[in-house]
Structure formats: C-alpha cells, structure tokens
Amino acid sequence: MKISIIHDLVRWEEKALLKAATDRGIEVSMVDVKDMDMDLDSQLSDSYGGVSIQRCTSYYRGLHSTAFLEYKGQIVVNDLNSTTTAGNKMLTSLALVKNRVPTPRTSVSTGYEAAMKQFSGKFGNRAVIKPVTGSWGRMVALLNDKSAATAVLEDREYMYPLYSIFYLQEYVRRPPRDIRTFVVGDRVIGGIYRYQSEGDWRTNTAIGGRAEKCEITPELEDISIRAARSVGRGVFGIDIMETDSGYVVHEVNGTTEFKNTVKVAGVDVPGEIIEYVKGVAR
Ligand SMILES: Nc1ncnc2c1ncn2[C@@H]1O[C@H](COP(=O)(O)OP(=O)(O)O)[C@@H](O)[C@H]1O
Ligand SMILES: [Mg+2]
C-alpha cells in the first residue's frame, strides 16, 4: 500500500505520521505542496498512492491542493467539503448551529457600522472578534469596551478584505482552560485540557497554553462526535469550553497539531490516523 502526505512544513506531527505509516509497512510519498505541479488538464500521477493525507499549515495551500487532488479522483483526508467548512469559522458556526450543537452566540457582519451596532446591542459592549480564517489564537481578540472595539474593527477594515468579515462572538464565562478532543473517523480517541498562560486569556498551546490529559466522558464523546459530523468526515480537533450550562463547541479544526496530546495524554494519534487512512483507502 502507498499513501502520500501533503505538507508545507515537516513538523513533529508529519514525522510521526510518516513513522506510523512506515511501521505498518505502508510506503509514503512526502509531497511538499510548494513543489506540486497542479496541471488541471493531466491525469494524476501514481506517486500520490491510494490516499493523500492533507497536512498543510497554510489553509489556502491546503484547500487548493485538496481541491486539485479530489477533482482528479484522489481520496483526501480530510476531504474538500470538510476542509472548506473547518477552515472557516463562520461556515463552522453555521454548521454547528444547523446541527444543534451547543456553540457560543455568534454574529457576523461585513460593515464597520453594523459590527459596532452588534457589539453594543447584542453583546453589551463585550465580545470576542476572530478572523474567519486562521489558527493558533492569532488575531483572536477580546474587546472589553467600545473604544477597544472601535480600534480593532477600524484597523481590520484597512487590512486584507477577509478581515472585514467581522465575526463577533459572546465572551464565554469559563474556567481558565478549554478542552481539545480528537475525533478520528467515528471515534473520539482522546483529549487534553489547555490552560491559558498567565499573561493571556486564550488557551492555545502555540501562545503558551499548558496541556493536561482530559478523560473523555460520554458527554464529551457525544458533543465531539456531533460537532465533527456537522462539519464532515475525517480527522478533527474539537475545541470545547465548559460553561455553567454545559459544554459549548467554539471551533472544529481540520489539520490539527497533536504533539501535546501524544505526550501528555499518551494517545497514539498518528497511529490512529494511519489506521483510519488505511480504512478509507481504495
Ligand atoms: N467566545 C469565547 N469566549 C472565551 N474564550 C474564547 C472564545 N473564543 C475563543 N476563546 C479562546 O481563544 C482561543 C482561540 O480561539 P479559537 O476560536 O479556538 O481560534 P483559533 O483558530 O485561533 O484557535 C480558544 O482556544 C479559547 O481559549
Ligand atoms: Mg482553536
């Protein structure tokens, strides 16, 4: 059996996937997305193997290379549809709401005035703003009052147009941590708590959040699977917050990092992913 791993960086995760596959006797072609010749008129070469694992850190590179591969008949984990949805916070929120998965109250606008009106009206002058595309907590900002909102929204209006899609969300009262669970196919394989660092309100480990093992209860399992199914099929990292009225899902991640989960929770994430990939390969 042969598979390919599409990447732009080779991180700990990609090396672990390569090893997990090789250990199972699977031949792996490591494809740097920047070297791919996406000739729309030619047939896909055999070098991609029976299935491709999409691991690009860049959402746009991942999205476009997944589209190319899938249209050429290749099986890609994750597929184009779930990559599109998971890669955009508005699409993810829409999918969660549609499927009645508890999620923080969210409102989107494309104009500065409308966004300020939502901020003051619906959210009572306190909200979180997020770029619809992005990760690692980047540009996720807590707007604590009107002048903070004015400053941030005004700045974003003059940035790349994508940042003028103002995605505002209620600031959720939660402990100084959140939960990240991993869904692979139909199973939740493990999870971690992520504690925010002293100087930040965000829990992302990329900005200093500390990981601890989280036991998967039936309730966590249920909400994780429902969140993943709202977005599609494949491998997902589900971000969950604990509130007084139960769990809420604030993000579904497509190509997730999992080093901390392997190290802290002792879950064999790369092995589980490769087993799943074996199952979906032709
Ligand atoms: N509505 C919210 N209320 C409180 N904290 C939040 C909220 N949304 C996000 N956060 C915090 O900010 C972090 C980053 O937000 P998230 O939506 O996961 O974006 P990213 O794609 O950057 O990880 C979350 O992990 C959480 O710690
Ligand atoms: Mg997140």
Quick structural gist:
It is built from 9 helices and 13 strands. It is of the alpha+beta class and 282 residues long.
Description:
The chain is α+β, with helices and mostly antiparallel strands and 282 residues long. The chain has nine helices and 13 strands. The strands form three sheets. It has a five-stranded antiparallel beta sheet, sandwiched between helices. The chain has a four-stranded parallel beta sheet with strand order 2-1-3-4, with helices on both faces. The termini are close together. 40% of the residues are buried. It binds adenosine-5'-diphosphate (ADP) and magnesium ion. Residues 104, 128, 130, 134-138, 140, 169-172, 174, 178, 202-204, 239, 250-251 line the site of adenosine-5'-diphosphate. Magnesium ion (MG) is lined by residues 239, 251.
Sum up the structure in keywords.
alpha+beta, Rossmann fold, 282 residues, 34% helix, D-amino Acid Aminotransferase, Chain A, domain 1, Dna Ligase, domain 1, 13 strands, four-stranded parallel sheet, 9 helices, binds adenosine-5'-diphosphate, binds magnesium ion
